[in-house]
Amino acid sequence: MLRRHNVTYLHTRKLAQFSGEFKDWNAEKRRGFVDDFAKNLNVAGIIGVGATINSKIFREIFPKNTKIMKDSAFGLCFRVAVLKMCERLYHPNSQISFVLEDGHKNSGDAFRIFSKLKSIKNDLLSQSLGGFAVAPKKQFGALQAADFLAYNIYKNMSSVRTGAQVHESFGQLMQQCGAILSITELDRGVLEGWRDRGADLIASRPALKGVV
After folding, report:
1. Quick one: which H or E segment has residue 191?
2. pLDDT tens sequence for the chain (212 residues)
3. CA triplet 59, 65, 68: central angle to 5 degrees?
4. Which position among 43, 66, 82, 190 has the lowest Cβ density within 10 Å, counted as fewest Cβ atoms?
5. Rounded to an integer, what distance in angstroms lies between the CA atom of residue 59 and that of residue 157?
6. Phi, psi angles (nearest 5°) of residue 185
7. d(CA 136, CA 32)
């Protein structure tokens, strides 16, 4: 698909801003690319899982010196994504491995969370977890798909919070791939609930049921 559109890899922010390899494109050409990309997601993707959080509200509820929440905002979103994905895709004879984009400043926090979840004994979740790795986005197509999903979720939630117009690429994504997407917003009510009930609940699957 990338060769067909004469690009080496998908960097979603550059696509949205018509920069880099997309600098000579127009809105019509971008729509065609997104349509093509969405069709590939529907063929190759089982499910797309996203989690989003307002970092300002997160820090209001969990200051940096708090002992209740050890996760960064990124880490908490990763934790929720892992739990939701394993819940949706659980199969007794298979495991789910995770590949994160190389170089992200919070990838270490994600690995800590993954290792903790995997170490829980006699738990279906820990049995569902396979490996954890990081890789360059340019070399791993699935990371480019994840980048596309993450960027569009971020832009959409920013629009919801500010009342701005939703980016057209997100509209295309939802129209064509909405059936395989699961997007969770960790809002103030959810975060306050975790704070009031204590840190032990945050690490568990039961904490998500009925809350997220």
Report:
1. helix 188-197
2. 999 999 999 999 999 899 999 999 999 999 899 989 888 887 877 778 888 898 899 999 999 887 778 888 898 899 888 888 888 777 778 888 999 998 878 888 899 989 988 888 777 778 889 999 999 988 888 899 889 888 888 887 777 777 766 667 777 777 777 767 788 888 898 888 878 776 555 555 554 444 44
3. 80
4. 43
5. 18
6. -100, 120
7. 26
CB 49 within 8 Å of CB 202: no
Contact of 86 with 125, CB cutoff 8 Å: yes
Amino acid at 105: K
Q: Are residues 196 and 188 in contact, defined by beta-carbon separation less than 8 angstroms? A: no
The residue ranges of DSSP E strands in the chain, in sequence order, are 48-53, 96-101, 129-135, 181-186
pTM: 0.82
Report how far residue 212's alpha carbon sits from residue 210's, in angstroms, rounded to the nearest whole number.
Answer: 6
Q: Which helix (H) or strand (E) holds 43?
A: helix 27-44
CA 129/CA 94 separation, integer angstroms: 9
